[in-house]
Amino acid sequence: MLDLNGYHGTSVDRIAQQAGITKGAFYHHFKSKEELLVLIHQEYAEYQLQVMQEAVARDLSSKDQLRALIRCIVEAVGLYKPNVTVFFHERRYLTDKYLQQTTEQRDQLENTFRAVIESGIKNGEFRKDLDSRVTCLGIIGMCAWMYQWFSPDGRLSASDVAETFSSLLIEGLGA
Q1: Any alpha helices (H) in 5-95, and if so which ranges?
Q2: What are the residues facing 126 on neighbouring strands?
Q3: Residue 50: helix, strand or coil by DSSP?
Q4: What DSSP element (H or E) covers 116?
């Protein structure tokens, strides 16, 4: 059940009640609500980074690597939509210790995309007039934002959305 009270408005008692555990059991597994919030993000981020690394490890052109990365991020958002939703709405409550950890994961994601884009610019597959960082952040933002509107039970699958995004982006980046 989604608690509409947000991070600060939801007590550990409420979390334990909804999970069917005691407050003591919660604290046996987590030091704090913040640690639970980080775990929600980590589950999604670690999966996403793993599939992205597998995608770029294949011997593909920059266009095909970018297509694979877009598919990875879109399908991860589709699979982990509740995690993504909670994290994006509540990440502002992370303290420095946990924020650094999630920032490092975000940087890994960005660096993976950026390396593919820069490789494509260098080898002539992508336009040379594009700023790689802005392009990278635009692609990641477009893909991540789908948590706002995507429904796994909707008209389009995550694969369909990934294909649409890939076509749109790769045509726009093409040299």
Answers
A1: 6-9, 12-19, 23-29, 33-57, 62-79, 81-90
A2: 174
A3: helix
A4: helix 96-122
Q: What would the two tokens of residue 49 be? A: 């980074």
- At 114-163, the pLDDT tens digits run 999 999 999 999 999 999 999 999 999 999 999 999 998 999 999 999 99
Asked if residue 86 lies in contact with residue 165, where contact means CB atoms within 8 angstroms, the answer is no
Residues 56, 112 contacting (CB under 8 angstroms)? yes
Task: Identify whether the C-beta of residue 70 lies closer than 8 Å to the C-beta of residue 143.
Answer: yes
DSSP conformational letter for 150: -
Distances (CA, A) of 162 to 54, 98, 166, 172: 17, 30, 6, 15
**Dihedral (CA of 159, 148, 39, 105) sign:** positive
**pTM for this predicted structure:** 0.83
Residue in the structure block whose two tokens are 């699958």: 157
